[in-house]
Design goal:
This protein is about 50% helix and about 15% strand. The protein has about 400 residues and is an alpha+beta fold. The protein has one domain (about 5-400): Cytochrome p450 (Orthogonal Bundle). The strands form six sheets. It has a five-stranded mixed β-sheet with strand order 4-5-13-10-6. A three-stranded antiparallel β-sheet has the order 3-15-16. A hairpin with a 4-residue loop joins strand 15 (about 385-390) and strand 16 (about 395). Residues about 1-10 have low confidence and may be disordered. Bound molecules: protoporphyrin IX containing FE. The site of protoporphyrin IX containing FE has 22 residues, from helix 11 and helix 15.
């Protein structure tokens, strides 16, 4: 691993660090989180370089929260640290101002607490089916067999798509989001899969325009913004965001939850004995294993924590660094499954805070409780070293075993 925390210059009052580690494709599990912890305790703002562009890394909760909340200065027109001028747009994630507010207003009812309440029986049914597929085997890979599959199936339900297409979606998801680590010709594989996803949704839009159904896409197609129908390419950009926001996030979180409980039998035993602790344990896993690492683009010269920030540069705002800030949380570096007050930022902050947080929490709750009712005791398969990829941080593969 590179010695990423070494300060190599200090001309601005902000440490300049070697940030090659943002591109580390594979590291032992927990490595990316530890690296942010070390930086946070060294300085509130660092600078680095990604994709040939200088950027800023903000490490402490108060500064991270404030930056997310100052949307008039820090724009969502670019959200990946190495890409200040992206050629693509995800909706609503990469919109600013009035048009963003209009999209949020039309999407909010889709994942309101009341809408999610109605979905609960379906979530339980679908997760039980996931368990049915593996329970007799006594072993599975949590990532491939459980965590990727479950949110995919739920996405199919919400979009009114045949459940049989879930396997194809899972393959596209792996090729697009994890191409770096899993395939040789990464770029070609990723672009090919992206083209296929766009083609799939394009066809679906045509079908739903001709024959609307009771599903999410038909609902969006029927909406107007500022009195005008939504352009087709914007509906497509929404479908693409849904693909990324709703699938890989739940999968990554589920995998960290399972990894924690497979390696901390004392926490698992307590949850089996006191199942009323599941909601606080799930919140604590969200806090401690917050894998989403968004960025914003500075639209004017400004400052963060006294460090000058130049217009046009990206500002990297890793949520886990906020969530493990000892200035905000007692025992910030420990998983406390019965933590009572837990104002974490795992779902972000400011105008782009996650729209799917109610659904995400219910998916996590259904999965964790049902699994532990049916397979309470399990462990990481012997001899396996669990590895984690960077970017949107996530565990690569988690083989576990249990007695049958
Ligand atoms: C554990 C699971 C999840 C986590 C940790 C998570 C986290 C996040 C975060 C941090 C953001 C803000 C990104 C930013 O500020 O740039 C976000 C945005 C978003 N999420 Fe989630 N998310 C999860 C699941 C979901 C699900 C299940 C859905 C919907 C089905 C969803 C829909 C969205 C949407 C639409 C946005 C964009 C909101 C906007 O731009 O205004 N998310 N999510």
């Amino acid at each position: 691993m590179p010695d990423s925390n070494q300060i190599i210059d200090n001309p601005t009052g902000c440490p300049i660090t070697d940030h090659t580690e943002l591109n580390v494709p594979m590291a032992p599990v927990g490595w990316h989180f530890d690296s942010f912890d070390a930086k946070r305790e060294m300085a509130p703002v660092h600078t680095g370089e990604a994709g040939g562009h200088q950027y800023y890394l903000v490490t402490r909760m108060a500064d991270i929260r404030k930056t997310y909340q100052t949307a008039e200065v820090f724009s969502n027109s670019a959200v990946s640290v190495g890409e200040p001028n992206p050629a693509y747009k995800w909706i609503p994630e990469m919109l600013d101002g009035h048009i963003h507010t209009a999209w949020r207003q039309l999407l909010t009812p889709l994942w309101s607490p009341a809408a999610v309440e109605k979905l609960k029986p379906k979530l339980r049914q679908r997760f039980n089916e996931v368990i049915d597929r593996v329970i007799a085997r006594g072993e599975c890979d949590i990532v491939a067999d459980v965590a990727l599959l479950f949110p995919n199936v739920i996405f199919m339900e919400l979009m009114g798509l045949p459940i049989d297409d879930a396997d194809q979606f899972q393959k596209w998801e792996v090729d697009i989001l994890h191409g770096d680590s899993r395939s040789g010709d990464n770029q070609a594989v990723r672009m090919g899969a992206m083209g296929e996803v766009v083609g799939y949704f394009d066809k679906l839009i045509t079908q739903r325009q001709a024959e609307p159904k009771d599903d999410m896409l038909s609902y969006v197609l029927a909406q107007r913004i500022d009195g005008e129908p939504i352009p087709r390419e914007d509906v497509l950009a929404f479908c693409l965001l849904m693909f990324m926001a709703g699938l890989d996030t739940v999968a990554a979180q589920l995998t960290y939850n399972f990894h924690h409980l497979a390696t901390h039998p004392e926490d698992r035993a307590r949850l089996l004995a006191e199942p009323q602790l599941w909601p606080s344990a799930i919140e604590e896993f969200l806090r401690f294993y917050a894998f989403v690492t968004p960025s914003r683009k500075a639209m004017q010269d400004t400052e963060i924590a006294g460090c000058p920030v130049k217009a046009g540069h990206m500002v990297h705002l890793p949520l886990v660094s906020a969530n493990r800030d000892p200035r905000e949380f007692a025992d910030a570096d420990k998983v406390v499954i019965d933590r009572e007050v837990n104002r974490h930022l795992a779902f972000g902050a400011g105008p782009h805070r996650c729209l799917g947080s109610h659904l995400a929490r219910e998916e996590l709750f259904a999965a964790m409780t049902l699994w532990h009712e049916r397979i309470p005791n399990y462990r990481v398969a012997p001899g396996v070293q669990v590895m984690e990829h960077g970017g949107q941080i996530g565990i690569e593969s988690l083989p576990i075993v249990w007695d049958v």
